[in-house]
Amino acid sequence: MAKVIVVYESKHGNTKLVADKIIEGMREVSGIETALSELKEVDLDRLTEYDAILVGSPNHWGRATRNTRVFIDELGNLNLKGKLATVFDTCFSSDFEKAVKKMEKQISEKVTGLKLVAPGLSIRVKGIKGPIIEGELPKCKEFGAKIAAQIK
Predict the structure, then answer these.
(1) Whole-model pTM above 0.70?
(2) Of the four, 5, 36, 43, 90, which is 20 to 30 A from 49 by CA?
C-alpha cells in the first residue's frame, strides 16, 4: 500500500480545506494510505516513511509562505530518493499559479531524489481571507484522485 502525506500551512482555513478535499479524492483510490498534517506539526524524521509528499501553502505575494519555503529547504536534508511530490496553493486570481511554480522550482533545485509526479494545483479565493471561489473545490478532489492513481 502506498503511503501519502499531505502537509499544509493555512492562515484563514482555505488551504486546509483544499488539503481535506485532496485527501477525499485520494481515498477514492484503493491501495492508498493517507495522512494529513499541519506544517508546524510535521515530524521531519518520519517523512521518509511516505512514498509521496504533497505540500500546500497560501500564496503570499506570489510565493509560498516563509514557513513553507523553509520546510521545503529542510526536505533537502532528508534521503527522499525515489519519493514523489507535488504542491498546491490558494491564491488571488492575479497571483494564480505563481506560488505553485516557485514551490515546484524550489523542490527541483533543493530536494535531490524527490520527483514531481504532476503539475501543482492552484485554487482561487476571494480576497485575503477567502472564501474559496465557487467551482474550485471539485478540482481538489479530482487532483487527489489523479495523484493517488499515479502514485499507486
Answers:
(1) yes
(2) 90
As for how many domains the chain has, the answer is: 1
Give pLDDT tens digits along the chain (152 positions).
Answer: 999 999 999 999 999 999 999 999 999 999 999 999 999 999 999 999 999 999 999 998 889 999 999 999 999 999 999 999 999 999 987 778 899 999 999 999 999 999 999 999 999 999 888 999 999 999 999 999 999 999 98
Question: Domain range spanning residue 145?
Answer: 2-151
Residue 68 and residue 103 in contact, taking contact as beta carbons nearer than 8 Å:
yes
Distance CA 59, CA 68 (A): 10
CATH number at residue 106: 3.40.50.360
Cell of 99: 506560488
